[in-house]
Model the fold of this input.
Amino acid sequence: MSGTTKTGRSTWRNWAGNVTARPVREVSPASVEELADAVRKAAEDGFKVKAVGTGHSFTAAAATDGVLIRPELLTGIRDIDRTAMTVTVEAGTPLKRLNVALAREGLSLTNMGDIMDQTVAGATSTGTHGTGRESASIAAQIKALELVTADGSVLTCSEKENPDVFAAARIGLGALGVVSAITFAAEPVFLLTAREEPMAFDKVTAEFDALFAENEHFEFYWFPHTGNCNTKRNNRSAGPAAPPGQISGWIEDELLSNGVFQVVSSLGRAAPTTIPAIAKISSRALSARTYTDIPYKVFTSPRRVRFLEMEYALPREAAIGALREVKAMIERSPLRVGFPVEVRTAPADDIALSTASGRESAYIAVHLYKGTPFQAYFTAVERIMTAHGGRPHWGKVHTRDADYLAEAYPRFGEFTALRDRLDPERLFGNDYLRRVLGD
Done:
């Protein structure tokens, strides 16, 4: 199968609809050779190049008016190595397809984020993560990757081969080249028991350190304008599997999380004064439930209600103090926030631009329904996060620039020096990278 090229300026939009671009041409390569050709041809024609995944970033990380590389033909598993316990996949493979294929082979990733619509390259390049005491982001599970660089050459990177590139390119923001394939660590498929339970804000925040220490994967959601939270603990289990019942699972995951939430979000956008009352009712409607299933069915859930999101990584010990500041800020402001605030954790890792690079981290994520004015809320939250040395998620709304980020990341200079070497002409540049990495 060979790829396709489409010329003429059609509009590309991200999932949330807050970023648009009009590339001069779109290329869908079907092999790494075709991808390398597309990169070389763009350079010859004087166009910038950006690869796009499924558009799940809220930033303009993938936007370009040059050549847009679409990944839908670069999909599928290349190789499963049961001796090394690795799986190599094409960069455009959606996480959902990878998870289903691995499960069929009796394998699983160790940890994952809470949605699986993204491509493997899109998710890892922006630092997508779930929550974990010992297990880190999806990018931290990468054992090797294949990268097409600005001169059209194909680099294989691992701890042994091009280790300096490997140290940075696992979360490369699309700035070092176009990722064409990724090798992940895999393990035999296992069972997780999820325990979801409502809990008072004061209790969760007082006991956060213990809840973190006692669980392999702990997260919680706080409902603004209330003192209510929902907690989720995921721990490995000897089984047997006991998935949510079809009806109760549908009520929880589809009706409440997507259907009713869509209606409530629309109502809140139209009549913001109703939000606090709705929040009190909906946060009290949650009930405790426990179920056991294979990892991707526990870690991930569908997200059909479209929103905008900002997320910051803080030193773990600073997170609860910062969350209390967010709560106090909302309570004394005229803001009406209809989306819960999400808190997750990650261990320190060794990737240059990982939000958890060199420090144990906790994440605070704030969301607003698509089409709701977000500036006032996000600006106020961002002020609190930056006061604690926060690092913004690369794929979510933020206003930070290279000056701030160079202070927040001890290895920032290592990344930008590598970029200068691999892409001196900024073939892979765009406005977003100019802001966050400098020129």
In short: The two ends are 38 Å apart (CA to CA). The mean pLDDT is 93. The first helix runs from residue 32 to 45.
